[in-house]
């Protein structure tokens, strides 16, 4: 079992939170849902890092950048940072590390010299083709306790959250999509 870095269980954290904010006029189901989402995401990230990525010398962020570049067959740096949910400054350091390992290359845009495109090297592509099935096997372990129906419901619910936030960020109504 993966234990979160703060070493407090979900139940302990919820009890402590309730003791501190229980008297406030809050939407407790929303707080519990978002808190559980956050903790679940961190637990999954830690588990996948410890079981798959670390032994291949990758951080979570390094893997996400490789994955983004891989699935889009190359991407401009600002889009890579946005897709990986990291700053451009963080991306610069990650790309330097991946480039030094021979996994990624930078290429100045032919249409705008201010822009830099990222591409996987042959070695980076080979790593992702080897690594992603292992990563997916670990993902499967993470959700193994869910029924097929529960997994579909969870996926639908999480996609709904993402879609709603994307709509809020873009100023559109999610129902329009």
Automatic annotation (TrEMBL):
Residue ranges crossing the lipid bilayer per the database entry: none
UniProt keyword annotation of Transcription present: yes
PANTHER family named among the record's database cross-references: MARR FAMILY REGULATORY PROTEIN, TRANSCRIPTIONAL REGULATOR, MARR FAMILY
Entries under PROSITE patterns matching the protein: HTH_MARR_1, HTH_MARR_2
UniProt entry tagged with the keyword Ribonucleoprotein: no
Keyword field: DNA-binding, Transcription, Transcription regulation
Designated name of the protein: HTH marR-type domain-containing protein
Domain HTH marR-type intervals: 30-163
Signal peptide: none
């Amino acid at each position: 079992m993966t234990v979160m870095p703060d070493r407090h269980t979900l139940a302990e954290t919820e009890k402590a939170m309730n003791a501190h904010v229980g008297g406030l006029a809050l939407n407790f189901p929303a707080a519990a849902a978002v808190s559980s989402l956050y903790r679940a995401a961190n637990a999954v990230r830690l588990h996948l890092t410890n079981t798959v990525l670390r032994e291949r010398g990758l951080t979570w962020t390094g893997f996400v950048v490789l994955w983004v570049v891989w699935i889009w067959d190359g991407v401009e740096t600002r889009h890579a940072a946005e897709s990986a949910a990291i700053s451009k400054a963080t991306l610069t350091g990650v790309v330097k590390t991946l480039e030094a390992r021979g996994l990624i290359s930078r290429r100045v845009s032919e249409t705008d010299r201010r822009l830099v495109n990222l591409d996987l090297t042959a070695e980076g592509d080979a790593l992702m083709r080897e690594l992603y099935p292992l990563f997916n096997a670990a993902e499967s372990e993470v959700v193994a306790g869910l029924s097929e129906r529960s997994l579909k419901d969870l996926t639908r619910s999480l996609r709904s959250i993402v879609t709603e936030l994307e709509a809020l960020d873009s100023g559109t109504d999610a129902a329009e999509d």
